[in-house]
Amino acid sequence: MSEELKILEDVTRQEYAYGFTTDIESEKAPKGLNEDIVRLISSKKDEPEWLLNWRLRAFRQFKKMKEPKWPNVHYPPIDLQDISYYAAPKKKPKLNSLDEVDPELLKTFDKLGIPIEEQKMLSGVAVDVVWDSTSVVTTFKEKLKEMGVIFMSFGEAIHEHPDLIKKWLGKTIPYNDNYYAALNSAVFSDGSFVYIPKGVRCPMELSTYFRINESNTGQFERTLIVAEEGSYVSYLEGCTAPQRDENQLHAAVVELVAMDDAEIKYSTVQNWFPGDENGNGGIYNFVTKRGNCRGRNSKISWTQVETGSAITWKYPSVYLTGDNSVGEFYSVALTNNYQQADTGTKMVHIGKNTKSTIISKGISAGKSQNSYRGLVKIGKKATNARNFSQCDSLLLGDKCGAHTFPYIEVSHPSGTVEHEATTSKIGEDQIFYCQQRGIDEEKAIGLIVNGFSREVLNKLPMEFAVEAQKLLAISLEGSVG
Amino acid sequence: MLEINNLHVSIEDKKILNGINLVVNPGEVHAIMGPNGSGKSTLASVLAGREEYEVTEGTVTFDGEDLLELSPEERAWAGIFLAFQYPVEIPGISTVQFLKNAIGSIREARGLDNLSAREFLKLMREKAKLVEIDPKLIQERAVNEGFSGGEKKRNEIFQMAMLEPKLALLDETDSGLDIDALKIVSNGVNKLKGPENGVIVVTHYQRLLDYIVPDYVHVLYNGRIVKSGPRGLALELEEKGYDWIKAEVEAAAV
Fold first, then answer.
1. In the predicted model, what is the mean pLDDT of chain B?
2. Given an 8 Å threshold on Cβ–Cβ distance, is A3 in contact with B81?
3. Bridge partners of B143?
């Protein structure tokens, strides 16, 4: 093995040193998946009958469906009967101060630049009363309320805004859309609901972080965002802080709807436990995300930075239904050790003069496999539709893989589709150049990877971008601390 | 400051340097000249710590420390700078961001506080002016990406100016430069010269030495310094080419 490869291998053989698991008492449903469980979940959440029936329809549909085998990922069969589908909202363990938190975790927080108060929240330390009652969160919630913005857990929204939920649930992603979406529809636990009324520009970035006191709903999460005419919202999902979960299978659904002149910007940083350096454990993340630009001149952008999970299967898509609507997908997917990612997007042009942009940056290290899979479809009525796609892959070492699967279907002669793709390797020359300037190997790799991801990182809200940048570097570090 | 003693270097079992001896004192400029393939660039690379070269014999000390024991970044922290013959591109990172990282790392290693944003900016403006580099090139463009040959070399000298090394190694900095660029680059090097720091200029042609005037000229051939002399030696080489040196060496070997 050449010296270069050895360096890369050393640097990329990283352990997920910040994992922390806690045993928390929770009220759990027995393992297994059947109609009774679906009914149990619905009744525990005190749901109206229409929703139970919707879940049951989804479940019956699900039973007829088969697990998709087309993604370029490999894993042992998942025994869906061996999973518990309901646990009462988990309480985070209450600690009295940061001194009680795992110092390794705190180190990681520091590296990510997470403020102290936020560190406390994330690690379950009781937050100062002052902070909790007067400052950010409260002011934030009041301000939103004033403007008519609804931002609450899915569970609450079902009771407080049943009409909106009934109107929009499953409209963008029908319960029979795919295997995992059907499963989610049947057993979803909780999630977020956002509604931006007509003409309102949401004045701050909405982040699940502000709902941190709510239950931990990672496993079968469901998010629904509706932006009425002329409104705007920027939504942040996830967290750069490392997240571990006892549930291996995650199947979330995210639905977005943008009406005339509305804009939704949805940013994700995903850092679920990726498994250890030998590929043991790790989250399976099978997500269905789709936005519908229903209105004229509407716009939906997805920006994602994916560094976690053992297996990622995720294609945030935009249906460009309204004339002149715009869809964007900006993605950085980093895989290390034995991680596998099959991620990309679908841009479906239905309306006239619709425009879409895809910028995908895949970074593979260790023995990981990283695939981009994207569909650009221009429908029969989509006059003058335009798409630009750029897919770049960066390889660290010679044991990882980068794959690109672009699909293009054009049914209107006026459509313009451009696709550019590059694959490059971090070279010994680049690393040596950095080292000669005093930057050590690990930092050099972080710097090069961040440079490679620049176009996407620039699309993230500022604070998030800074953290994401550090996260990319940390995900490739030989060891933390 | 720098002492090279009987340095032997191989790459993949091929011997390239066969016993180099060289002493560089503060304030001195040394030119290393020689025909293609004589080992000039290898010498610069080995001093900077490039890992594919294997040192089979000899020692190198820098300020009394064993240089060969240090990693490339440790050498940079100690004050060694290499202006690359083929500067590398780093997409997505501007030279300014790159140097912020470099200066931050070096200062941290030396136990100094990092420069404030303001101090950094001031230093950057000052040095950009010194080496006459377009600020757009270093602020808005990625490191060396799409730069012309001359712009890349100028960027190397700009980085050198920013890092203020104790020992600068210029590896064929003149190659690919037209005469105007050559003057600007040389001018930059001259302004940075001082009684405290040394410079090693590696070059094939003497013309660079019209602008960066060396105190000593060494001729490298077959991995050895076969002739050393004052500046006049470079002029002699220019006039006569390298053949007479080769002939001398071969005659001596018989």
1. 91
2. no
3. B90
